[in-house]
């Protein structure tokens, strides 16, 4: 009888231990989930451009199971039997994933040039596309930055799968934070892009001007205003480009600001897209 009671007690102990381990496992998993989810907020899924030509799409980010938005423009003359250029466009700090679609004249001129345009989020609105290791608020981007870069490349792959994209005419550009992302992603994937452009670019924390040698074969357009504090760092990077004999066009616009000289200026938007037109890898 005593032996049976001992056996029953042992079974209870084993059950309790297993239950405790299961609870601890769930708590740890939940903590990891909460930590992961704090990287994104509802604001990261916000969309602002209300233009019927813009497709607001999303996909499941495999690493976290989250649904990540992106925006896509397909020109009216698109023909699935004809290879079409792709313009990958990276937004600035805190902007929505579709923000660049609203730049005045961008979609009109992309339609004229028959460009497919995609604007990834970069996982969050301030993920820096892998180009920064620490956010402006001091937070670590060790995970968020990796996810930000990966999101861009995931979206590029999705568009390539869905549309007849000309791999010899893939273009990359970005504004402000997106400029830093353009520098970085061009250097990460130097054989992918036929041309790149940066507009009022922030400086990537994980890169230095000498890294431009990685992309010295890629034509680059740099648009910069003199009323923007980033003009000083831009001049340093352009000087390095010229020292490397890069095919660079630098337009420093007297009196131009950081944002409106591109977002509200059809002439400069046209200059940007015309730079890409016809360039091949």
Looking at the structure, what is the overall shape? globular
Biggest β-sheet strands, sense, barrel: 8 strands, mixed
Treating each run of at least 4 consecutive H or I residues as one helix, how many helices? 7
Q: Strand percentage, roughly? A: 15-25%
Work out the helicity level.
25-40%
Structural class: alpha/beta
Mean pLDDT: 90
* Helix and strand run: HEEEHEHEHEEHEHH
Spans of at least 5 consecutive residues whose pLDDT stays below 50 are 13-36
Instruction: Give me the Rg, rounded.
Output: 24 Å
* Alpha-carbon distance between the two ends: 84 Å
| Main sheet strand line-up | 1-2-4-3-5-6-7-8
Q: How many distinct beta strands?
A: 8
Report on this structure.
By secondary structure, this protein is an alpha/beta fold. The protein has 7 helices and 8 strands; from the N terminus they run αβββαβαβαββαβαα. An 8-stranded mixed sheet has the order 1-2-4-3-5-6-7-8, with helices on both faces. Helix 2 (106-113) links the parallel strand 3 and strand 4 (116-120). Helix 2 runs parallel beside helix 7. 38% of the residues are buried.
Task: Please describe the topology of this protein.
Elements: H1 2-37, E1 54-61, E2 66-73, E3 84-90, H2 106-113, E4 116-120, H3 144-162, E5 165-175, H4 177-188, E6 195-199, E7 220-225, H5 231-243, E8 248-253, H6 260-263, H7 266-276
Parallel strand pairs: 3-4, 3-5, 5-6, 6-7, 7-8
Antiparallel strand pairs: 1-2, 2-4
